[in-house]
Amino acid sequence: MENKKGIITNLDLIFSLNEKLDIFSEKIKKIGEKQIKNFEKYKPSGIKSLNGVKPKEPKKFVFIDAGSHEIPLAMDSIYLLSALSINECGEKNFAVPQIKSTPEIKEEEENVLKKEGYLRARDVVSLIRENLIFKLAIDEIKKRKPDLIVIDGPLIIRDAFIRYKGLKSFENFLTSVKELGKLSEKENVPVIGFVKRPQSKFYMRLNNFTEDIINLRDPVFLDLFLKKGDFFPNPPIIPEVKSFKDISSNYYYTYFKPHGNEFNPPFRIDFNKIAIKDYMGWLKWFLKNSGPATKGIPYMLDKVDKEVKVKEVLSNHLYKEMKRKIPFKMRHLCKLNWGENFE
Question: What is the pLDDT of residues 150-206, one digit of tens each?
């Protein structure tokens, strides 16, 4: 197969990929046929619709997200991290941006990174980014005590996070999570985590499903049964986790489908102990303030998600400006990691 630039793709590769996809599709068909035959057997009881539910109407609220961007240089990598909150008036509050390089990350996490390598450096960046979200939420409560805080991401710490144990950045993250939990309860502030791409299996682990079903993630399984405006479990429940119980036992979760798009699984919504008191009202507020344009994500959450990210066109421009300041004979030192080009 040849494209406009004359690059040829190996036909054996195409045939092999097509064969694998055929095998995968047959496997899905078999699973699907079993599910259809036993549909009612697997359907959870207690799925709840938001029809007739009155939405909560917070006067003061804030949505928070964080972003990170990597510029992979040949001799280093530079990471740009920032967090942003936007309130009901459209006012924005940026957490102090952080610019870190790989040596800085390795110095902070030296003992672990010596054993784990480069991939753990990216994990550290991710943890620093998530920590910025919780620190900004803490700052919002201290400054103006909103009626609601919505963060982009989970409040529940899953068992999979155990792999980060030993990283100082993870301990800092856990400290911020705990502080937000205590402060939000003390000040009676509802905090909700909106998880757009949940990977959890909280519900699946509670049930004795057959082998072909048990490996599905919660949102994939529940997508078979939830319609627009539905959520499950009702009421939201505390997750059963083996690790970090001291944190996760303070939060409740449910899976929520605010859209009718069959290609998008439901979201997971995490509530703190204050938010759980009016969980249906908050879910209805999300439903009221979202639509097809954002695929069911609240408009304000979609806005903060887009604005916090450093656009590639900007980082590309700054990179080229940096390169111009370096003598030509030394520019090999600031080449990109794999010889990529910034257009």
Answer: 999 999 998 888 888 878 888 999 999 999 999 999 999 999 999 999 888 888 888
Name the pLDDT band for 342 (thresholds 50, 70, 90): very low
Q: Which residue has the tokens 């994500």?
A: 297
Query: Which residues contact residue 187 at a Cβ distance below 8 angstroms, ignoring those fewer than 6 apart?
Result: 141, 145
**Tokens 């480069």 belong to which residue?**
118
Structure tokens belonging to residue 310:
């450093």
Question: 120 phi and psi, to 5 degrees?
Answer: -70, -25
User: Residue 138: how many CB atoms within 10 A of its CB?
Assistant: 17
Give the tens place of pLDDT for each residue, 95-123. Answer: 766 777 766 666 556 555 555 554 567 78
3-state secondary structure the chain: CECCCCCECCHHHHHHHHHHHHHHHHHHHHHHHHHHHCHHHHCCCCCEECCCCCCCCCCCEEEEEEEEEEEEECCCEEEEEEEEEEECCCCEEECCCEEEEHHHHHHHCHHHHHHHCHHHHHHHHHHHHHHHHHHHHHHHHHHHCCCEEEEECCCCCCHHHHHHCCCHHHHHHHHHHHHHHHHHHHCCCCEEEEECCCCCCCCHHHCCCCHHHHCCCHHHHHCCCCCCCEEEEEEEECCCCCCCHHHHCCCEEEEEECCCCCCCCCEEEEECCCHHHHHHHHHHHHHHCCCHHHCCCCHHHHHHHHHHCCCHHHHHHHHHHHHHCCCHHHHHHHCECCCCCCC
211 vs 228: CA distance, rounded Å = 29
Q: What is the CATH number of domain 50-308?
A: 3.30.420
Strand partners, 151: 64, 193
Taking phi over 0 as left and psi of -120 to 50 as alpha, with beta for the rest, 119 belongs to alpha
pTM: 0.81
